[in-house]
Amino acid sequence: MSNTEAHPAEVGCGARENGTPAAGVEILTAREVPLGGPRAMTVRRTLPQRARTLIGAWCFADHYGPDAVSESGGMNVPPHPHIGLQTVSWLFSGVIEHRDSLGSHAYVRPGEVNLMTGGRGISHSEVSTPDTTVLHGVQLWVALPAEHRDTAPDFQHHVPAPVALDGGEARVFLGSLAGDTSPVDTFTPLLGAEVTLAPGAAVTLDVDPGFEHGVLVDTGDVRVDGTAVRPAGLAYAAPERHTLALTNESSGTARALLLGGPPFDEELVMWWNFVGRTHDEVAAARTDWENESERFGRVEGYPGDRLPAPALPNATLSPRRNPAP
Length: 325
Ligand code: MN
Prior knowledge:
Jelly Rolls; seven-stranded antiparallel beta sheet; 5% helix; 45% strand; globular; binds manganese (II) ion
């Protein structure tokens, strides 16, 4: 997915101050962002935001749907570029057709993770398929650490087998949880899993105490270590936890995504679809895209024009510090 805000702000992220991790759970609420297009589908964005820009290396979280495609028009994101990140696509309903400049042509389906590494430069398009009636899922970005941010672009696909929990089920698409480990490569330790909880279920998950975690609630009345999280909300749990308790207080099945990773201590500048370290680096990527540089290759098979880059902001912003856990 592309950040299709007409005037995207430049967001500085990263380098938290060292501090004592908090015991509580912090709630991050979503803001609605139109994806663009004549019938603009909107997404609910919980990362980045002023209160918190990263959870581990997770630096972007868009949650959308369930969206009736007959009304919203679905997803149609023309070819656009990325650098310095990996995109993680995870669907609950519907199918998205992915094409990228590596020649990958893949379908993103519910329960199947697609992880695209932008590295030094990639471009891709994302379009919901004609037979998709309801589109529902998340688009997540992972910042690449400095030593790997110029890595070669790549595309990976994995279908995790569901793992039974006492009162639910997990699908581990990145990292390890509940005895399952994803084979998908990442450049920092990460956790990404879908967790479903039966009505009334209380599940205690063993987690890495070196990780901070985010719980993005899709459906249900979920509590995270006792704190209530509304659907589309993202609960942040600081490191130094050995377990994470999830309860479903609703009468239906609850569903959430569990994200995690060690605090990411590098300063970042995020603008549009780029994750860089400096304003100049991001500006150079924009110029390369506008000049149709070979850096971003070409997406074959998309019926339409590529996405033009928005204008850069007038101000040069320096990276902002992420609050301490
Ligand atoms: Mn994208």
